Amino acid sequence: MRLNFSVLFLILFILLILFSTLRSSAQSAQTTTDSIKKNEIEILKEKVDKHLIEFSKLKKLKISGYIQAQFEVGQEFAVTKAGSLTTYNKERDGKAGDFFRFGIRRGYLKIAWQESFGSAVFQIDVTEKGIGIKDAYIKVSEPWLKVASLTAGIFDRPFGDEIGYSSALMETAERTVLFQKLFPDERDLGGMVTLAAPEKSKLYGLKLDAGAFCGNGIAMPDNGKMDFIGHLKYEKIYSKIAFGVGVSMYYGTVRNTDSILYNVQKVDDKHQWVGSEVSPFQKNIRQYYGLDAQFLARTSWGFSNLRGEILFGTQPSTKSDISSPKTGLMQYSKDANGNYNSFNRIRKFWGAHLYFIQDIYKTPLSVVFRYSFLNPNRELKGHEIMSKTDLPYHYFGAGVLVKCTSYLRFMCYYELPFNSTKNDIPVPAKPADGKIDIADFQKHVKEGIFTCRLQFKF
Hints:
The protein is mainly beta. The longest helix is centred in the N-terminal third of the chain and has 57 residues, at 2-58. The chain has helices spanning 2-58, 90-93, 177-182, and strands at 61-74, 99-115, 118-127, 130-141, 148-156, 187-196, 206-213, 227-237, 241-255, 260-267, 270-277, 283-299, 302-317, 332-334, 340-342, 345-359, 365-375, 393-402, 408-419, 449-457.
C-alpha cells in the first residue's frame, strides 16, 4: 500500500508539473497573440488617423466651374462673341445679310483653397480660342473682430453691381455695353481692403471695398501708376424681400501717346474736336462715378428681381473706341512721314441700365427684360456728331431662362440696339468690304443679336 501511494503521489506530481508547463505556454501564446493584435490595432488606428488628416486637408480644396456653349445669330452689322470671325462677311456667310456663329463662350475652371484665416483662388478660362487667366488672388481675413480682409492679385474690380455679378448667374447673354467698354474682362491687377460691419451690429449689411489697381486689366503693368477704385454698399435681407444700394468711384490716369490731346470745344457756335499741345506722355484723368440699387421680392409667382445702375464720368479714349485700355499706353499710328497721328480723346460720358427678371409660377422658367443706354460723349449733340464712337445708343433686350436643374440651365436672349439718328456721320458711297447694305447712321443700323446658350455648372 505504501508503494502504491508513493507511485500515485509521483504520478500526480508529474501531472501537476505538466499542467503548469502547458498553462504557462498557453498564457505565453495568448500574451503573444494579444500583443500582435494590439500592434495591428495601433497600426490600423495610425493609418485611419493619417487618412483622416489627409481627408481634412482635401476638405479645404474646392474645384468648381462651368461651361457655356452658345449659338449666335447676328444681323449684318452686329459683332458676336463666338467664332474666329465675329462680323459678317459676304464671301463666307452668303448673301442673306444675317450670319451664324457657334462656340464656347466661357469654360471656367476654378480651384480654391480655404483656411481659417483666408483663401487662395486660381481660375482659368478654357475655350476653342485658347487658355486665359481669369482670377489669381489671395484673400486674408483678420480673425479677431472679423470685419476686415485684404485681397491681392487678379480679381473683379470693386465697382458697382454688374461687375461682381457672376457670369454663371447672368440672365442675359452679356453684361451691358457700358461695362464692357469701361471695364473690359471685369478684372484688374491690384490690392483691395474690405471692411464689413459685424453681424450683431446695427450697421450689419454695410460694406466698403477700396483698393489700388494697375488700371490695365489683367495685362502686365508698364509703370508705377495706380488707380483707386471704391464701392460702398448697404444691403438688407428679410424673409420675403431684400434690397441693396451702393455708390462707386474710380479715379486714375491714362498716359497720352504723344504731345497732342483732343477735347471738345465750342467753335463758331458749334462743338467740335480741337487738338492742343500738352506735355509729352502726360497722364490724362480717368474718373467714374456710379450709383447702383437692387430689389428682390418673393411672391406666389416666385422671385421678382429689379436691378439698376447709373454711371457717368470722364474717359480718356481713342478716336475709334471709347473702351478702357488693356495696356499702359493708348493706341496710336504714324502717317507716311513717320509722324504720330494722335488718337487721344477726352470724353464726358454717361449711361444706365435696368433689369427686370420674373419667375413664372411653379415652372423652371423666368422671363428677362433689360434696357440700357450709353452716351459716350455728352458734349456733342445732333449734327455735331461726326463719328460712330460719339453716337448715343439705346439697347432693348428680352429673353427666357430655363433652370433645368441646379447644374443645367438654358437661355435664349435677343438684344436690339437703336442708334441715335440725329448725327452728321458721313454715309459711304458703297458698302464696306464684306457687307451688303450701307452703314447709314441717319437710320437704325442692323446690329441685333440673338443668343442661345446651354450652361452646365459643377
